[in-house]
Design goal:
Layout: H1 2-20, E1 39-40, E2 48-49, H2 61-64, E3 71-74, E4 83-87, E5 89-91, E6 94-96, E7 99-101, E8 104-106, E9 115-118, E10 135-143, E11 151-157, E12 161-163, E13 172-179, E14 185-194, E15 196-197, E16 205-211, E17 223-232, H3 238-242, E18 247-251, E19 254-259, E20 269-275, E21 280-284, E22 290-295, E23 301-309, E24 312-320
Antiparallel strand pairs: 1-2, 3-4, 4-17, 5-6, 7-16, 8-9, 9-12, 10-14, 10-17, 11-13, 11-16, 13-15, 18-19, 19-22, 20-21, 20-23, 23-24
Amino acid sequence: MWSQIMKNNIKLYSLVFLGLFSVNLFAQQQLENPGFESWENVGSPTEEPLEWSSIKTSDNSSLNSSAPKVCEQSSDAHSGSYSVKLTNVAAFFIVANGILTNGRVHSDLNPENGYVFTDASNSQWNTPFTFRPDSLVGWYKFAPQGGDKGKVEAIIHSGNAQNPENGTAANFVAKARFIMPSTNVTSWTRFSVPFHYFNTNPSSHILMVLSSGDSTQAVDGSIAYFDDLELIYNPLSVDEIDAQKIVIYSNLENLCIQLPRFNSNSKRVSAKIYDLQGRVINSVENLTQGINYTSLPKNEGIYLVSIDINGKKITKKVVITN
């Protein structure tokens, strides 16, 4: 009980702090306990990072006591004292995915029916969020079994949201996703993925999910470590960069990136093309004023092009059709 009171109080103090600085143009919202330094119930079955939850505290109370422990504190940290360790565990003839969320887990004996969600009506199970970051970064280690793939996913949204979306996609404002490679990553490795914005609607919350397995295909024994999550904001807003009239379009077998004249010749401009799984498909350095050409992805689909101008980014969408 005391740990829950402290959890709610810390959330309240964080909101007050953000409110006091909301008039500051340089104030930027971050995730709560992004470095996993604060924990509750350490050593017990419900051991979890403060402001985060796993399948042991799902909304299905009939399963919580028998659900396996998939989340634990680790002293193997990228920085600070701790990181979070997630493990896939076989139980009840299924494999429980090692999941951690800043919302809440809905668990079910049938993995197809499981999801994580923002409970907007209960501050214990949501993270208020109204900003528009450009990208999500963090550090991870991964020991997959049998080609397993873990992931990190962030959904900025209004009202209620679930992941998988289960009919709540209309509330999504933006999404970022990083899929880990199905190979051993034994040293701390940085990931960075852009947010894809679907609209200009105001947001109310951000829903995070970290996992050590590939959703309903998770493999027993896969282990992932996460630390130092961070939301990245550009010094220039998206609207300001849009005013520079960067144009991206496809032409035959080329992706064309048209850049305006810059005030300074010292601009360092590069680009990366991502698929919607967060994988880098292509990258190009030393873009110049005028039209730049790079090869298109071979497959049809929607891709994100992230332009970096002296460390300031803009992400645009391009649709490839054959």
